[in-house]
Design brief:
Elements lengths: L14 E8 L5 H11 L3 E2 L11 E4 L2 E4 L10 E6 L3 H11 L9 E5 L2 E5 L5 E5 L11 E9 L4 H10 L5 E6 L2 E7 L5 E6 L11 E6 L3 H10 L2 E6 L2 E8 L6 E11 L33
Parallel strand pairs: 1-4, 5-8, 9-12, 13-16
Antiparallel strand pairs: 1-13, 2-3, 3-4, 5-9, 6-7, 7-8, 10-11, 11-12, 14-15, 15-16
Helix pairs in contact: 1-2
Length: 288
């Protein structure tokens, strides 16, 4: 008997990859302690190696951390890490170095909530089927948005960007769930809590149909930067039906012809130490 496959599981959105989140922060030393020694990720050894910026590799995605006044995502960044127990031990080790900052973490059963020294929130998950086969990844970014905006945001991503989008429940609240690549999502979760003003942070995505969304955003007057042949940007998310502004966050949008698309990223094995060194185990050997 021939197997029956659910072919929709292999469908992809026009957004093919959520590549990085960019937040400025004022201290590269503290950032290194948090992202490298604590979370266990890898500083990119090839690009942005000075003191004015740092790129942190997380599987196939990155955090970009230019030096400036701190910016904060209005929501949380979802990460997949190979071992939550090892993560907790690393965070305990760096805690004294981050005293007096907003750093903290809490084990919440199936995941660990972690706050960076400047207040950005990360939800760290163990590998699970809901995140695909990956063991190291930026699985999602979840933004807090005002009540009554999720439907319009979902329509924006579907109608303007050509992305697969639906309404789901996140922690009991409606949310727009946007497919942002292989086993990656962007969530816009409604909340009645106050939402801080936008401070300039951004996300970067790669899209397959590069010109169609550009033309539609141009018609709405929403293009904010013409970077080069491979990239443009926009900030405002508006309901296509009413043109009402719903949320603001800069999107750095790149084509699949961008020179950095598909660039292999170096990921280390955070369990490797000089005192318990195992030859041949420097690189991360899991799936990402």
């Amino acid at each position: 008997m021939n197997p029956v496959y659910d072919r929709t599981r292999e469908d992809v959105s026009n957004i093919v990859h959520l590549e990085h989140v960019n937040v400025t922060q004022p201290d590269q030393r503290l950032a290194t302690s948090f992202y490298v020694a604590g979370l266990g990720f890898t500083r990119d050894p090839f690009i942005m190696v000075g003191l004015d910026n740092m790129w942190i590799n997380i599987g196939r995605s990155q955090m970009h951390l230019p030096t400036n006044q701190p910016q904060r995502i209005r929501g949380a960044i979802g990460l997949v890490v190979p071992d939550l127990a090892e993560l907790r031990r690393r965070l305990e080790r760096i805690a004294p170095d981050l005293g007096g900052t907003q750093f903290g973490f809490a084990v919440r059963g199936a995941f660990v909530d972690v706050t960076c020294p400047w207040g950005n929130r990360f939800r760290c998950h163990a590998p699970a089927p809901e995140f695909g086969e990956t063991e190291l990844a930026m699985a999602y970014v979840e933004f807090d948005v005002p009540p009554g905006t999720a439907d319009g945001i979902s329509r924006f991503y579907a109608g303007i960007l050509g992305a697969t989008s639906e309404i789901v429940s996140r922690d009991g609240a409606p949310a727009a769930s946007v497919c942002a690549g292989r086993d990656q999502r962007i969530y816009f979760r409604e909340t009645s809590q106050p939402i801080p003003p936008y401070d300039g942070h951004h996300i970067q995505i790669y899209i397959a149909d590069f010109s169609g969304p550009y033309r539609r955003l141009l018609e709405y007057g929403l293009i904010t930067r013409e970077t080069d042949a491979h990239e443009w940007r926009f900030q405002d998310i508006a309901d296509p039906r009413t043109k009402r502004l719903l949320f603001t966050v800069e999107h750095e949008v790149r084509s699949l012809k961008h020179p950095l698309y598909g660039r292999p990223l170096v990921n280390r094995n955070p369990a490797q130490t000089n005192r318990a060194y195992v030859r041949g185990q420097d690189a991360f050997r899991g799936t990402y």
